[in-house]
Design goal:
Blueprint lengths: L3 E5 L3 H30 L5 H25 L1 H24 L5 H27 L2 H30 L6 H18 L3 E5 L19 H31 L2 H34 L1 H21 L3 H27 L4 H32 L4 H31 L18 H14 L2 H11 L9 H4 L7 H28 L1
Antiparallel strand pairs: 1-2
Helix pairs in contact: 1-4, 1-5, 1-6, 1-8, 2-3, 2-4, 2-11, 3-4, 3-6, 4-11, 5-8, 5-10, 7-10, 7-11, 7-12, 8-9, 8-10, 9-10, 9-12, 13-14, 14-16
């Protein structure tokens, strides 16, 4: 029997945008409430223990949810949302009756729930949209996701002026319930697709751990989360020294709102420029450049202001540029590999990195080596820049190999890989995507084509905004013209 894939109805974009908006809103709300609640009962030096426990819990539950989602993702999401609501209400009951360590448990569950829900929504995005669709719609999905965080960031400080802090938990549960109602309206159908040929698609073809691109991407994301945890701890340590628990919540929510607002602007106006000028390498590297410079600044001028500036820039760079670069790279892989890649990155790499970072932070806290945190961030940032260059290199190699992986469309499974007709159709699809990466990929395929003349839709790329595209096309035209003259020369001599 053939495999199955999930295909949503025509209004899938609207529902995906709403879900990701709620998911990011839950992340902002969960971080604000979870941190505020934890610092009410514990010192900031205990935060690494929360991070370690959060990483271990997420690592354990993610494997269970992944196995469950493979059977029926929508059903899994619906049932897990109900489970989250019941668990949070039970934990709040323990807090009200002052059960020992109930605050730690509720803080942990709030942070873990927000992270798990948001990760599940992005897994759903990768499952529904392919490479071409995501490149066209990705900005809108990311923007709606960011807008959800912005709205929640504005609402939280207003609420804290009129209601007790625990009211944020009620809002958190209400948002989960709204997401559950939205999932009830997501109707999917299963369609059969052609099963891969065993000779052309062995299991090794889909082994991500044998792909250099994924290994470097895994290392990159691992280190990005490592620096994020370190920078996040530094900010919350400074907040603990200056503000009380309610003021911390009132600070964090507007802080996230501001970063989300800047992120929206960046996604619509700066992101296209970065993609056009630098491609994937710029998107992956910009986060590490910011942490490299920012860590030196905080090391030289340690304060709440410097920690806030560094964290703000890191949040914007990670959500605006790195997240788009990450999704672009992941979408190069076949669908089955994309789902596996999201799981390995968002669950394995993220949680293991958080555990390792928290373990090192706990050692620094015990030894009172707070300044060494920024030295560590600086060192890791240098390694991240090197890895970003490697990711870019193997990204383009994987794009070129996409033709052998039947990456662009299932209908090409009936065409031989060595057939020129197959190449021509892939070239045309890649050109129509209009993104720099896809057009460069198409032109690289065109170099090996046996064509009497270059198609008009290819020649139109001489007006492309990207200088790299124009240079490559001019090179192809010149080489082809030279070869044609060589082929005609014997005929001239014979005359």
């Amino acid at each position: 029997m053939g495999k199955t894939e999930v295909i949503a109805e025509d209004n899938r974009l609207m529902k995906v945008c709403l879900l990701t908006a709620i998911g990011t809103g839950l992340t902002v709300l969960g971080d604000s409430y979870g941190t505020m609640l934890f610092l009410t009962y514990y010192k900031a030096d205990s935060l690494p223990y929360l991070y370690v426990t959060l990483g271990l819990l997420s690592l354990a539950t993610s494997q269970v949810l992944q196995n469950w989602q493979q059977k029926d993702m929508i059903s899994c999401l619906k049932k897990s949302h109900i489970g989250f609501i019941i668990t949070l209400l039970a934990s709040f009951y323990l807090l009200v009756y002052e059960v020992a360590h109930a605050a730690f448990l509720l803080s942990l569950l709030t942070l873990a729930t927000a992270f798990t829900i948001l990760t599940s929504y992005w897994n759903l995005v990768s499952m529904i949209f392919d490479l071409r669709e995501f490149k066209q719609l990705g900005r809108w999905i990311l923007a709606s996701s960011t807008l959800g965080g912005l709205i929640i960031g504005i609402i939280v400080p207003i609420l804290l002026k009129f209601v007790p802090p625990n009211a944020l938990l009620i809002l958190f549960i209400v948002l989960i319930f709204l997401a559950y109602l939205l999932l009830l309206s997501v109707h999917v159908k299963k369609t059969q697709i052609i099963a891969p040929n065993k000779r052309t698609h062995s299991s090794s073809s889909y082994s991500l751990l044998r792909q250099p691109l994924f290994l470097y991407l895994f290392a990159s994301y691992f280190l990005v989360i490592f620096t994020h945890i370190s920078i996040d701890f530094n900010l919350k340590k400074e907040l603990y020294l200056v503000y009380n628990e309610v003021q911390i919540g009132s600070f964090l929510a507007p802080f996230f709102a501001i970063t989300m607002g800047i992120t929206i602007i960046g996604q619509f106006f700066i992101l296209p420029i970065i993609i056009r000028m630098t491609g994937v390498v710029g998107l992956i590297a910009i986060c590490s450049i910011i942490t490299l410079v920012g860590s030196l600044f905080v090391f030289q001028y340690p304060s709440l202001i410097s920690a806030t500036i560094l964290t703000g820039f890191e949040e914007v760079a990670r959500f605006t540029f790195y997240s788009m670069g990450l999704k672009m790279v992941i979408n190069v892989f076949p669908q089955r590999a994309r789902i596996e890649a999201n799981f390995l990155l968002k669950n394995k790499a993220r949680n293991i990195s958080a555990i390792l970072a928290a373990a090192l932070l706990s050692i620094f806290v015990k030894l009172q080596w707070y300044q060494f945190i920024m030295i560590l961030v600086f060192t890791v940032s240098i390694i991240m820049i090197f890895i970003a260059v490697k990711v870019s290199k193997y990204y383009y190699i994987t794009l070129k190999n996409s033709i052998n992986l039947h990456r662009f469309s299932d209908e090409y499974l009936t065409i031989k890989r060595t057939d020129d007709a197959f190449r021509n159709r892939v070239i045309k699809i890649a050109i129509e995507e209009k993104s720099e990466d896809a057009v460069i990929f198409a032109l690289s395929l065109l170099q090996n084509q046996r064509l009497k003349e270059i198609p008009n839709y290819v020649m139109e790329q001489l007006n492309n905004k990207s200088i790299l595209v124009r240079k490559l096309l001019i090179k192809i035209v010149c080489v082809r013209s030279y070869k044609m003259r060589l082929m005609q020369r014997p005929r001239v001599l014979a005359c």
